[in-house]
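Hey, can you fold this one?
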Amino acid sequence: MSGAAPLRLFSTLAVAGALRGSIARCEAATGVALDADFSPTIGLLARIRAGERADAAILTAEGVAELIAEGVLDAASRTGLVRSHIGFAVRAGTPHPDVGSVEALRKTLLSAPSIAYSRTGASGIAFAALIEEMGIAEAVNAKAQIIPAGFTAALAASGEAALAVQQVSELLAVPGIEVIGRLPRQVETVAIFTAAVFRDAP
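Sure. Predicted structure:
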């Protein structure tokens, strides 16, 4: 590594799996160490608005747009990186319930003994809104493990939850699970994750 200061990155968990696999190659190619801080977008937005800074950020497209409007991120540097879908995972080797249609998804969510989703991630917020729209929020939340942050698939892998809900990229970051599908097209939510540089970055 060169004597340059590490490049500090705030990044949504949705791209953590892909980024962790490429950090070493990036560092070798540039000679600059990468200090990546992976957290849900909502948590990162709160920290940034409280004054924390990095060199660059990868957030939801909406989050980046808000920080550009607030003068925190550089609009000219905005770059779309990933289109991400919300999906479902179960412990490896267990049956795959049907999530292929809205009605099948409703039955699966109501019959699953336990469900894990995130409170602060883009997927958890969208899922919470969806089950409200479907009229099953009370029944689902009564048996849900709603984690503040992190990978919901870890609960499926350990057997603590029968079904995990999160961005497919985040589900795939956890060993010991199988992704069984994503939200049906009629209720699909696609998140776009975007990178931008902080305006006051050196």
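Residues 7-82+192-197 form a domain with the D-Maltodextrin-Binding Protein; domain 2 fold (CATH 3.40.190.10). Let me know if you want another pass with a different chain boundary.
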